[in-house]
Amino acid sequence: MSGSFMAVAQQLHRKLGGILAAPVLRSEDEPLESVRAARDIQSGAEALMAAAVRQAREGGRTWQEIGDVLGVSRQAAFQKYGKVIDPRTGEIMNTTPLPEAIELARAVIDDHAHGRWADIAARFDDTMRAGLTEEGLAEAWAYLAGMAGAYESHGDTEAVRAGDFTITNTPLRFEAGDFVARITFRDDRSIAGLYILNPEVAGLVDGPAAD
Q: Are residues 66 and 139 in the same domain?
């Protein structure tokens, strides 16, 4: 095993030992301390997973094999644990999604649900603004209502970074059908892509584009 993997594993083992021994060592109930310790263990487990993936890659394992073990696609495994090199500079790329992306995506969905087309269009970048009007947004939402009835709710939003963009995927539930809202944001928070997709199509990660 690699040294980094063993170091992370030993550190996690010490933390886990500490939390298991806490009921014996403490004379009074300290539930918040247990929460903090559990949080540290959760962070340590993620660091251990990242080290294990690095070790597997160094051992010649493919992203497909790693994804199979994790129960995700090879692309999802790579996006979470891979080292992305920018072909333009040769340097490691930023893989952290825009921090506000989930809140921004939910705001756009809420604007759709309440017919605030102007508010959505105001978030568009120049390319989107040239290709999609407020009327186009309203027509697309009406088309969905014609196929699947009234909008009911949304699920949890996932966000990933792809190059210079953050892509969000949010499940949408209508009366008689389910869709996925895929919204692409630039780092300046403007919208660079907006799609409403069937769930099976939403398994793909697309670059920024207008719908």
A: no
